[in-house]
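Quick illustration, no need to memorize.
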Amino acid sequence: MNKRRVVITGLGAVSPYGIGVDTLWKNLVEGKSGIRTIQGLNLEKHVVKIAGEVPDFNPEDYFDPKEARKMDRFIQFAMVAAEEAVKDANLENIEELGIDPYRVGVIVSSAAGGYRTFEENHLRILEKGPSKCSPFTIPMMIVNMPSGKISIKYGFKGLNKVVVSACATGTHSVGDAFRAIQYGDADIVVAGGSEATVCDVGIGAFSSARTLSKRNDEPQKASRPYDKDRDGFVMGEGAGVLVLEEYEHAKKRGAHIYAEVVGYGQTADAYDVVAPAPDGAGAVKAMEFALDDAELKPADVDYINTHGTSTGLGDVAESLAVAKVFGDKVQNPKLHVSSTKSMHGHMLGATGAIECIACTKAITEGIVPPTINLDNQDEHVANLDYTPHKAVHANIDVALSNSFGFGGQNASLILKKL
């Protein structure tokens, strides 16, 4: 069986910079941080007081007030990003376009789901009893609801599911959509991730696990991938949604094509629930599998958007894995590497999708977004060109995006200029 070609025809984003892909990309290229002091929480008892919050997000700007109250924040983000992506792909009215709704699927996932809804209703139960729990608690909280609600809104009746793999969720979702189209299960899949964990449980739990940066007095300098003075990652929130489509299907209807998805690799470390394998073996294999799937060589890759969370163990393991597959900057001087998490923070289940969008824009615009705050490179990370401080112009024909999740779940995606 010949695998079908898959392209990207729509993009949508909600990020710590606000609404829209253009807003996201403009700030990334300018090297601006979206990290700030948290506004939506009582911080009195919190050790960590910074995050990449979506600013000035008013649900009633996008939804009927009654409907908005029935959706957790992570669902709202997903719906807004999906609306941009679907509109961008000109798929708002598929019946008018003669597209079979059973050939259009949705895989828009979340690693955590409705943390805020869980918090609020658990508090009600403690204070007033179980009968006072909202009747909408379950559909507001469960992680599959973005996919369900997107399909309902647009009449997409094809495959509909989510992937839950911690920080690899968004990349797995796009990758699984790619596979579904490759092998004929769908012609179009709306895919991505959404997260809204800037809340008491999200910030408190990750802080207790000693994974978050405590640089509260300098929020915009807190996320520092590969820098020796890093002290943990910074929580982010938002959503990234892409429309993936079979190449001939997209051409036939005259869709705008951003890039082609050509490779997908996925592995497990089988090592630890939190720490990555120190030798990066799982990451190495994920990247190698993606290259094999794409029928490309390491020398063909121009840019890697690393997982690059700004944690000690993770940054070192991934950098060594990248160098093992692609060579360091002496062996492979054309390879550009960067971590956009230095700017938007770690958006958990949404981050892989946002970074896939960043790779798409890097290809179409010929710009490598920077790794900001890389003032003193850690001597333990590999000798790579991390694109410190400022974006650079470069011809990007092939880009790779990495995502690695708690539990040792690894995913790599490769995009190519068409």
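The chain has two domains: 7-252, 263-416.
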